[in-house]
Amino acid sequence: MKLSYTIALFFSLITTAVFSQYNAFVPGKGWKDTDGMPINAHGGGIVFMHGVYYWYGEFKTAGRGGNTALKGVSCYSSKDLYNWNNEGIVLKVEENPNSEITKGCVIERPKVVYNKKTGKYVMWFHLELKGQGYDAARAAVAISDNPKGPFQFIKSFRPNKGVWPIGFKDEFKITSSAESNLTPWSPEWITAVKNGMFVRRDYDKGQMSRDMTLYVDEDQKAYLIHSAEENLTLHISELTDDYTDFSEKWNRIEPAGHNEAPAIFKKDGIYYMITSGCTGWDPNAARSFKSKSIWGPWEVLGNPCVGKDASLTFYSQSTFILPIQGKKEQFIFMADRWKPDNPIDGTYVWLPIKFNKEKPVLEWFDKWNLEVFNQIN
Ligand code: DGJ
């Protein structure tokens, strides 16, 4: 008994010594977990609880079909942000073909927040029903008592059915028969989009929810920020106090601005958002915005990236902005380098956020660690 305990301890120490190897971030390169396997948590987000960071993401598989959900949402935990333990699949797809999260559906950009009132971990994600391409455009919610899961799927739906956004003018609530005949991207069409053509179209069945993120403010109010209106306009939708539904208070951000991949943070009382344009899995130039109120108006700040490959966000697309615990000025920009032909090969680009007055700046680092923050801000 004693001998086997000693052997087990020896192997566990060896494993820890071999795989607790990272003391820096190496953007865009392979990143292994503490078992020596590539981290598989794409389009992810992070929650911090009791000294531990939990990273949730899309579990991708090999081959062209690897962007559909064949397993579910994965979770990794870390105390130092460099070395991650695999906690397994915390939201599993279901075998039942009638389930909304049946194997082969699309689950993208899962994000988890903790609800202080209910003591539950609440996960939201973008769900596409199996075999329906990207038409369903649903927001989906699951809950758990434990950050390591299992998460229990609750429901998926289109947000804000039958509710107009804050301050939506009465004159825009009426559909004109002519607008459906406008030529896409013509000036008249863009004006119609800005004036809510797709909000009106989706009023009865609920607004679209594709790329998304979650944000909990200091007053514990939570928000889903989601690409809606055929990805032309972001919506910000307040959640109910238990974070499992919408309060029906919502607003539009950048109408006709064509933003995906929203990531949001707050510094010195100002909200910042970084997004991408819409070019499928291909990289494009990131955008940044700021606002004094989460409801806007959001001021356009331009591409936060500087230097070589800034126009392609260093070949990546935003997914989340992580505030480092206990550090007022330290935020990590998290992004994905997608590999649509073999999604499992996608890598992660994490970069420190610098500031130029009230503008976030992203600069490439081949390799960096948290000490960078002592020099950059
Ligand atoms: C870009 C989005 O940001 C991704 O999450 C994914 O939906 C792809 N488009 C699909 O083409």
TrEMBL record:
<dbReference type="InterPro" id="IPR006710">
    <property type="entry name" value="Glyco_hydro_43"/>
</dbReference>
<keyword id="KW-0732">Signal</keyword>
<feature type="signal peptide">
    <location>
        <begin position="1"/>
        <end position="20"/>
    </location>
</feature>
<comment type="similarity">
    <text>Belongs to the glycosyl hydrolase 43 family.</text>
</comment>
<dbReference type="InterPro" id="IPR023296">
    <property type="entry name" value="Glyco_hydro_beta-prop_sf"/>
</dbReference>
<dbReference type="Pfam" id="PF04616">
    <property type="entry name" value="Glyco_hydro_43"/>
</dbReference>
<keyword id="KW-0378">Hydrolase</keyword>
<protein>
    <submittedName>
        <fullName>Beta-glucanase</fullName>
    </submittedName>
</protein>
<keyword id="KW-0326">Glycosidase</keyword>
